[in-house]
Specification:
By secondary structure, the protein is of the alpha+beta class. It has five helices and nine strands. It comes from Hymenobacter monticola.
Length: 169
């Protein structure tokens, strides 16, 4: 697996990957689907460009030797914490270590930027995903955040809340 940092030229393929990993029939091939919770897209090209434009933030990509995009993860250092979000792995490539590879890379990115804590938010009803992150050393803080209301990020089929998870780096 090869680690690369996304640029604006990667936005079209990142958009396809993230939406394929989270929504629609293709996402149901993997275990990280949100298709049963939300309708619509997960992200659009404009949203990804906005994320790439945040100072210090990066979208880390996992590529294979033929430059195929296997997965991606957003990392945004903010003071002592690095916020990690939108881990996406191609549904056909899940359960092969891509997520762990990207999680380690994103945590390393935070350390390189002086962060001592990694923070993420996970939809509260995603018990299997929360359990995965807990196996990776993350702990629920007891904090919650509202689910975004912007339909660019999906249309909830039920009320959703985000749980805050953290891990010391």
């Amino acid at each position: 697996m090869i680690l690369a940092t996304a640029t604006t030229t990667d936005v079209p393929r990142l958009t396809r990957l993230v939406n394929r990993a989270y929504r629609g029939d293709a996402s149901r091939q993997g275990w990280t689907t949100e298709a049963h919770l939300l309708d619509g897209q997960r992200i659009d090209e404009e949203g990804l460009r906005e994320m790439l434009a945040v100072p210090g933030a990066a979208i880390l990509m996992c590529l294979d030797e033929s430059n195929e995009l296997l997965g991606s993860f957003y990392a945004q250092p903010t003071g002592p914490k690095v916020y990690l979000g939108m881990l996406a792995v191609d549904p056909e490539k899940q359960a092969h270590g891509v997520g762990k590879f990207l999680l380690k890379a994103a945590e390393d990115y935070g350390r390189q930027h002086g962060c001592t804590t990694s923070k993420m938010t996970v939809i509260s009803v995603r018990s299997e995903l929360i359990a995965y992150y807990e196996r990776q050393g993350y702990r629920q803080t007891g904090g919650t955040e509202p689910f975004p209301t912007d339909p660019r990020f999906g249309i909830p089929r039920q009320p959703l809340t985000l749980l805050v998870l953290e891990k010391g780096l």
